[in-house]
Amino acid sequence: MKRILFFLVIMLFGLAACGQSDNKGSGDENSKPQPLEVDLQVPEHADSGEAVSMTAKVTQGGENVGDADEVEFEIWQEGAKDDSEMIEAEYQEDGVYGIEKKFDADGTFIVQSHVTARQMHIMPKKSIVIGDAKDEDAEEGHSHGDDETAGEDDSNHHHQEDLAVELHAPDSLTVHEESEVTVSINQEDEPLTGANVTLEIYHDPEEDPQWVNLTEGDNGMYAGKVTFAHSGEHDITIHVKKEELHTHEETTLGVEE
């Protein structure tokens, strides 16, 4: 009888060890989610008053994403981003979200899709020429050419209506070294608390961005640690979300060898 009990105990320990090993392996596979990809489809030209269909196909690892948290199209006439219009997209099928838009005036317009899904955010943009306007340089992918940027010293100031966003970084950022950055956010001169703040960092617009989720501290301060893999100038987009508030501000940071 003692021998039988001994073998039963050994078998139980073996099963427990196998279960722990399986769980650990499963966790490792899911620790690095694949990035989102957005295929933004915008016609190159349309007539004023014409209903224009525009779509964004969202995928992750080659699979269609039909459960995006939010897909919106931001549209503005070239040179007038402060007067942009935000339109919520409807899900169609096979990971495709779309809108229809009528343009009332001739000119070149910028169309930027804002896709939030699976704790990631991506925002490619393209241009469309309406009517007889000349086709200026089109903005595609992750270009930030139409947006105002600033990047000097250790802080960068941005304002959108009653919202003020300020990015703080060390005076010197060095490649491959971990650095702490902070973002302070105030709304109507009061600290904005309870927001979801994320940094989207590009060194090369043709490559996938680095995403950094910031942790909330006191008095509207949000902090996180960043390790830059490349030297040179980096485009930084600060995403701020809280309930109905959803905005982003852009700036740059320089990284030394």
Q: Could you name the key traits of this structure?
A:
11% helix, 257 residues, six-stranded antiparallel beta sheet, six-stranded mixed beta sheet, 21 strands, mainly beta
The shape, in one word, is globular
**What is the helix/strand order?**
HEEEEEEEEEEEEEEEEEEEEE
Instruction: Calculate the terminal CA-CA distance, rounded to whole Å.
Output: 70 Å
Q: What's the average pLDDT? A: 79
Structural class based on helices, strands and sheet pairing: mainly beta
Oligomeric composition of the shown chains: single chain
Description:
The protein is mainly beta and 257 residues long. Strands 2, 5, 6, 9, 10 and 11 form a 6-stranded mixed β-sheet that branches. Strands 12, 13, 14, 15, 18 and 19 form a 6-stranded antiparallel β-sheet that branches. Mean pLDDT is 79; it is low at 20-30 and 136-160. Strand 20 and strand 21 form a beta hairpin. The protein is built from 1 helix and 21 strands.
What's this entry about, in short?
By secondary structure, the protein is mainly β. Strand 9 and strand 10 form a beta hairpin.
